[in-house]
Amino acid sequence: MLGDFDKRFRQNILIVDDDSIACRMLSSLLQKEGYQCTVAQDAETALEKLALSPFALVISDVKMPGNNGSWLLKKIQELHVGTPVIMLTALGETELAMDCLRAGASDYLLKPPKIRELVRTIERIKAQKSIELTKERYQNELETTVASRTHELQASLKNVNHNYQNMLLALVSALDTREQETSEHSFRVVTYTLAIARQLKLTSRELQVIGQGALLHDIGKISVPDAVLLKPDKLTQDEWEQMCRHPLIGYQMIKPIPFLSEAAEIVLTHHEHYDGTGYPHGRVGEEIPLGARIFAIADALDAMTRNRPYRKGIALASALKEIARYACRQFDPVLIEAFLSIGEKGLLQICAETYNKPL
Question: Residue 281 in 3-state DSSP?
Fold first, then answer.
């Protein structure tokens, strides 16, 4: 199924724009990147083409004479459920584009779109569709296997879970690459999280669940448009609310997977604060799962000590003092003690042994 999807994604992109020159230019640029495109110069023609042949993706201008891009988006959602739509908007029309995002568009880009930015957006949407199809395949295989003998069920489930876990690891890598300034972030925080967890003498089963939750903590960001996730300026209120939904989206993505159901609770609560000021639900103290409380410390450590485009990372010793200062507020004070007991030397050794990169 996924092989057919990959092939269809390369072959069927519908571009809708009343500007024929812009339409042809965009089609030509995407064809040079290996995509095959069809063009339509109004919303009605686009619907006719969609009725004749399925398209993996639609790229539509927001403003067009007659029925505009918003109208087309609504029709696609009614008649061609699951077909992703990228909206193109002129400078000064971003409010219209945000309305489209709220209505279900996958992303929006300013006209004329930069080809690299457009391709990256297309590939992100492709990855998101892949995980949806894999979940569907997982459920189908599970239902089919339940009807077979017990030993066949166990063998099939092991294989399906292994394949699913490999795909999730690949998606985590893709997310870290997408946010260039946080490259390898997910894998680093797993190492720090488990180091803290081991100070608490947790069982191997508990360590496994906490490690899974730490690795997949930002998986919900696959649904956040590049226009919001990579925005260099301060987010608007609407954009911030979109960003704050990623823990819940990540939770909904992995909760149905049996071997990740416990880790999903960590994904849901990884932005909660010990004093109740976090999100999405404002949980307090031990209402927050232990794994999420541990992860919060590891995440803060990595964020503080790594360079970002807009600031330099601080020294490890300074980061330890700052994290300790927020005990009882952002962090569990008992876990802060466990974290600090590792010591500066221990943390430097962990980082060097794992990545051969100094803090």
Answer: coil
